[in-house]
Amino acid sequence: MKKLIKMSNQMVTHYSESTPAEEAESRVFRALSDPSRRRILDRLLAGDASVNELAEGFATSRPAVSRHLRVLREATLVVERRSGRRRVYSLNPLPMAGADAWLAKYRSFWAARLHALKALAEASPIPQSQEDPP
Questions:
Q1: Domain residue spans in the chain?
Q2: Rounded to whole angstroms, what are the CA distances from 58 to 13, 37, 49, 71?
């Protein structure tokens, strides 16, 4: 079932219909668009961590890191579990598979373009400079 969603920034408001899968993919891309959130994901590659442990690596406040974690949770890129009073986060890489599949189309496009450029460069004779002696 498609749902009408409103996307806007300061200059453009755009309405589009999207499926739940498209909405989930958009949440993943939105979450990955922020460098701080990517750093949090990089840190979680090493293993589970609490909010305080994650906040130690940032110049921002703990509440700011918590807001980043909320965005990552909503995109299902991290999983939160409670251990006593602590909230421990772990990486859930599965949602990135959709983003990777979308990017794969562009990787093959650029690989083909670079291959064609290499072939052209190798086939073209190198012009002699006027300053070089024969």
A1: 16-93
A2: 33, 11, 14, 17
Dist. CA 40–CA 55, nearest whole Å: 9
**58 contacts 39 by C-beta, under 8 angstroms:** yes
Residues 6+ apart with CB under 8 A from 62: 51, 52, 55
Relative orientation angle of helices 20-32 and 35-45, to the nearest 10 degrees: 90
Distance in Å from the first CA to the final CA of the chain:
72
pLDDT of 90: 97
> What CATH architecture does domain 16-93 belong to?
Orthogonal Bundle (1.10)
- Give pLDDT tens digits for 41-98: 999 999 999 999 999 988 889 999 999 999 999 999 999 999 899 999 999 999 999 8
Q: What is the DSSP string of 65-126?
A: HHHHHHHHHHTTSEEEEEETTEEEEEE--TTHHHHHHHHHHHHHHHHHHHHHHHHHHHHSPP
Flag whether pLDDT at 127 surpasses 90.
no
